[in-house]
Amino acid sequence: MTPNSPTLTVMVQAARKAARALTRDFGEVENLQVSVKGPGDFVSSADLRAEETIREELTRARPGYGFLLEEGGEVKGSDPTHRWIVDPLDGTTNFLHGIPMFAINIALERNGEIVAGLTYNPITDELFLAEKGKGAFLNDRRLRVAARSDLTQAVVCTGIPHIGGKNHGRFSKEIAAVMPQVAGVRRTGSCALDMAFVAAGRFDAYWEWELNAWDLAAGVILIREAGGFVTDMNNGSDILGKGSVLAANERLHRPLYDVLRKSATA
Ligand code: IPD
Ligand code: CA
Ligand code: CA
């Protein structure tokens, strides 16, 4: 059964409330106001409304906690030990194209450590939850990362830089090195779902650069609590700070890391 802690309850309530409006907006996507934050980087009235709802709900339940919000930035709370990290809509490009692969991402940081995470796809009604020491869950089912230890059998996932990205060349080298070694490569367009799918054993591994803390925070604890291994792309532990991720089970992580690292010198 899903762990039923007060923290997770608060997070689930906030996500479900924001999800109701997101689902409505998704059904009428052509009516949304969309602005461009940068090349290939969009924000819509749906992102902003969802973030506002999540912020209101979390503040009502935990008035002192601070925030790191994708759209609203850093908000200091009176309690310096706790901070919510929120991406109200991860997979905005999918959302705006009518592709039902996007998620709400909420994590709780305590003294600099992620202690709870939620990823919710309102269209499939898949709710991924994890809390430190209590395991990771999809709806009511306990999650475990995949057990495959052979790269040749692995389905791996990554993110592809778009028009605003800085490292198209690096991606081309990485994909050239990885694709002949694995059973399949996928790209969903939502870092949050990519990480949740690693936790659920659907993807054997995932790597991506140029991400932000709100893309990654919930997924880090989902994967760890599902028994997986997560680092930044330098094989270090500063995932949120570096904004990069390499996640897999413990046996696949090193071989994939080696392939990716070697691709840099190819
Ligand atoms: C994006 C998604 C995507 C990743 C991008 C992110 P957004 O987040 O997670 O999968 O490749 O780098 O920016 O903009 O949809 O919240
Ligand atoms: Ca995001
Ligand atoms: Ca977003």
Description:
The protein has about 270 residues and is of the alpha+beta class. The chain has 2 domains: about 5-140, Fructose-1,6-Bisphosphatase, Chain A, domain 1, CATH 3.30.540.10; about 150-265, 3-Layer(aba) Sandwich (D-Maltodextrin-Binding Protein, domain 2), CATH 3.40.190.80. Helix content is about 35%, strand content about 30%. The strands form 3 sheets. The chain has an 8-stranded mixed sheet with strand order 4-3-5-6-7-8-9-10, with helices on both faces. The protein has a 5-stranded mixed sheet with strand order 12-11-13-15-14, sandwiched between helices. A hairpin with a 2-residue loop joins strand 9 (about 135-140) and strand 10 (about 140). The radius of gyration is 18 Å and the shape is globular. The mean pLDDT is about 95. The site of one calcium ion has 6 residues, from strand 5.
Feature tags:
36% helix, D-Maltodextrin-Binding Protein, domain 2, globular, 2 domains, eight-stranded mixed sheet, binds calcium ion, 266 residues, 8 helices, Fructose-1,6-Bisphosphatase, Chain A, domain 1, binds D-MYO-inositol-1-phosphate, five-stranded mixed sheet, alpha+beta, single chain
Summarize this, please?
The protein is built from eight helices and 15 strands. The protein is an alpha+beta fold. The strands form three sheets. It has an eight-stranded mixed sheet, with helices on both faces.
Structural class: alpha+beta
Q: Which ions, cofactors or small ligands are bound in this entry?
A: D-MYO-inositol-1-phosphate, calcium ion
N-to-C span = 47 Å
Give the second-level CATH assignment, the architecture of the largest domain.
2-Layer Sandwich
Largest sheet properties: 8 strands, mixed
What fold name stands as the CATH topology of the largest domain?
Fructose-1,6-Bisphosphatase, Chain A, domain 1
Strand content: 25-35%
* Order of neighbouring strands in the sheet with most strands: 4-3-5-6-7-8-9-10
Given this structure, which CATH class of the largest domain is correct? Alpha Beta
Low-confidence runs (pLDDT<50, min 5 residues)? none
Oligomer: single chain
- What percentage of residues falls in helices of 4 or more residues? 25-40%
Q: Could you state the order of secondary-structure elements as H and E?
A: HEEHEEEHEEEEEEHEHEHEHEH
- Total of helices: 8
Number of domains: 2
Mean pLDDT, all residues = 96
Fourth-tier CATH superfamily name of the largest domain: Fructose-1,6-Bisphosphatase, subunit A, domain 1
Measured on Cα atoms, how large is the radius of gyration? Answer: 18 Å
Number of strands: 15
What's the overall geometry?
Answer: globular
